[in-house]
Amino acid sequence: MEILSVPPVKILEPSAGSASVNPPPQPKISTQTIRTSLKASTIDGVFAGVFTSITSGVLLTNFLLQLGASPVEIGMLSSIPMLLNLLQPVGAYFADRTNSRHNFCLWIFGVSRVLWLFLVVGIGWVSWSNTDPHRLVSWTLGMVLVTNILNALGSSSWVSWMAALVPHRLRGRYFGFRNSTGSLTTLISVPLFGFAVSAWPNGTMQGYGVVLILGIVAGVVSMGCQFFMIDVNPQHPQQHVFTRSKPESVSSDQLKENQGDRPKANILKDSNFLIFLLYFGLWTFAVNLSAPFFNLYLLDNLKLDLGQVTLYTSLTAGATLVMLVLWGKLADRIGNRPLLLLVGILAAVTPFFWLGAGADSVSQWVWLPFIHLFSGGTWAAIELCSSNIQMEVAPAEHPSTYFAVAGAVAGICGALGTTAGGFLAEVNYFGGLPGLFALSAVMRLIAILPLVFVREPRSQPAIKVIQNLLRFNQKSPLVPAVGIADPAE
């Protein structure tokens, strides 16, 4: 595999008796090479989406519920991956001392996905030995623990790899498209796999085991797609690659833009990033107070069928699929921060909607589908912009440390939120899950406040965006954010 190495430009002082030494030329990577890499990454996301939809979400939650898992154990299912994000700085430390982003990610995520075969073996052993199925709950949580340790170690390296490949002005559109393909995968795969698990003649436990095998195969195929992506050497700091195919010189202004127009900073001295961490941590805590328990509310409290719940999940994926491309283009024009502020308010009040949901026909066929469609549309913007704004506020050199710290903060806050939500859900005088949903909505609204003070390069003020939206004048479209050019230019 070709390794992309973009050394920093240095001006060398001429030594006595010698001619001036020119800085080493920047290697030119053709546009076609970048396009091939990004297409491979998109296909990788499709197969990874199949793997993720089986090893997490409603399918895994239903599997544990069928085994007799308690709300606390369901909460642990969501809190373990987030808590293990504390290991992301460790992963960033080792990843930045390798010579290949690809090789590091290949070993970390490849092993993580293959390890799920042990759960397949466990399901087979319990099925044919007539052992208490509840033992598989601990087995499954142990598998989630081990695999997410590896995922946490590789996460920041993967984000840094993608940040190096995708130029600033295309991040919203590209990640919007890539995430939309993943949503389409979820839209199709989750109902099919949910139906297969429910209809499996030997029971849902064995049905999930068969589906899990398919997920592991898809996960391995996704790793194979990464062989078609150009590699990046983390020993040569960079923000993103140069995509010019002509051997023309790079001007100082272009070089400054490609390097992110930001100096290398110390995290503890970077007040802007610290404010972002405050917002990110509070928001993640507030969201995870309720998010892991929506499917539990449908399956356990409302006693809905798994097939119907997976249908709702598909509606969310469909809304996400439709809205991601729109949010991506809009984020490139106005910035990520304004969308996080405006759409974040809509996402914050969503848990209030669940207070009106019941098991009646109107709720099942009108209100619950509306909630899932609304959630999919708003969370498409939240997830996309939350990832992209981290790339914007991080420095150009060695951004993996910033990504790792952000992931660690989100992980510990998310784990605390999920754990607190699991215990509060079992407190009767608190109101159970409906009371938890109301508390989550209030906390989400509070969490948005620090985002007001976050500065993002190339973004417009939220007030200006609102003014443009209220004008309803098509002759005065939203002005592109500073520094973001149209890709056709």
Structure description:
The structure is a single chain. The protein is mainly alpha-helical and 489 residues long. The protein has a single domain, classed as Growth Hormone, Chain: A (Up-down Bundle), CATH 1.20.1250.20. The chain is built from 18 helices and 2 strands. Strands 1-2 form a two-stranded parallel sheet. It is globular and about 55 Å long. The two termini are 30 Å apart.
CATH homologous superfamily assignment? MFS general substrate transporter like domains
Our estimate of the beta-strand percent is under 5%
Strand order of the largest sheet: 1-2
Rounded to the nearest angstrom, the distance between the terminal CA atoms is 30 Å
> Total number of helical segments?
18
Q: What is the total tally of β strands? A: 2
Q: Structural class, judged by helices and strands?
A: mainly alpha
Q: Give, in order, the helices and strands.
A: EHHHHHHHHHEHHHHHHHHH
- Report the CATH architecture: Up-down Bundle
Question: What percent of the residues sit in helical stretches (DSSP H or I)?
Answer: 55-70%
Rg from Cα: 23 Å
How many individual domains?
Answer: 1
Mean pLDDT: 80
Low-confidence stretches are 1-26, 239-264, 472-489
The rough form would be described as: globular
CATH topology heading: Growth Hormone, Chain: A
Which CATH class? Mainly Alpha
The largest pleated sheet is described as:
2 strands, parallel
